[in-house]
Design brief:
Length: about 230
């Protein structure tokens, strides 16, 4: 069972998603586990303050290093096994399916969710002494915090675990898939127009169906057949 540790100030924002649908069942069935550590639990001030003004000036606040480091240390504990720490940065390597496959082979994955203007860079230097650190960007956008990319990674990794999707073929990138999909009914009507499922998908000829699905999109609307 793989164990995910989310280092976050807002565990409640993550747990609703991670408790629903396929991910929720994976947790219930002990295919994976999710734990949380909040940097607020490791501060020494009475206000639970985890941010300070940036050196050199600039807008916003920066998360202090030591509460984050201590939270990661608590998450990792003394357990043995293959581990990795995930650090998020807009300039990091774009997260891919190949990266998800690699993380799925580990026993523990710690995802550090920054907030505000980021985390004091010294935290990253310390974390590299604890476990291998992988720096990722998830998409090209900049998010309010690291929780959204962390959820994306947990999702992408979990669906690769044996038994989570039922069949290995359910992992789209491991089978012939298409950007356009169809289901019942065969014909739908909207504002006087009838739209049909492409005939090839009803032939039962798997070679032709795979060839149809393997077609690359050409930047135009999907070829839904009109009645």
């Amino acid at each position: 069972m793989i164990r995910f540790h989310l280092i976050t100030l807002f565990p409640e924002a993550c747990d609703a998603y991670l408790s629903a649908s396929i991910l929720g069942r994976a947790r219930t069935n002990k295919k994976m586990r999710v734990d949380y550590q909040s940097p607020r639990d490791f501060v020494t001030n009475r206000w639970g303050k985890v941010d300070e003004r940036p050196y050199g000036g600039g807008p916003g606040m920066v998360m202090t290093a030591l509460p984050v480091v201590k939270a990661v240390k608590k998450a990792l504990g003394r357990r043995k096994g293959k581990k990795a720490i995930v650090w998020f940065s807009p300039s990091g390597k774009q997260f891919t399916n190949k990266d998800a496959d690699a993380l799925a082979k580990l026993d523990e994955v710690v995802l550090v969710c920054g907030r505000y203007e980021g985390i004091d860079e010294r935290a990253l230097k310390i974390l590299k002494t604890m476990a291998p650190v992988k720096t990722f960007a998830v998409g090209e956008a900049v998010y309010t915090g690291g929780e959204v990319p962390a959820l994306a990674i947990v999702d992408a990794v979990t669906r690769r675990l044996p038994g989570v999707l039922g069949k290995d073929e359910s992992v789209e990138e491991r089978r012939v898939a298409a950007p356009d999909v169809y289901t019942r009914p065969e014909v739908i009507e909207w504002e006087g127009k009838k739209l049909r499922v492409p005939k090839v998908l009803k032939t039962g000829d798997h070679a032709k169906i795979d060839a149809f699905r393997a077609k690359k999109p050409k930047g135009k609307a999907s070829e839904v057949q009109k009645a």
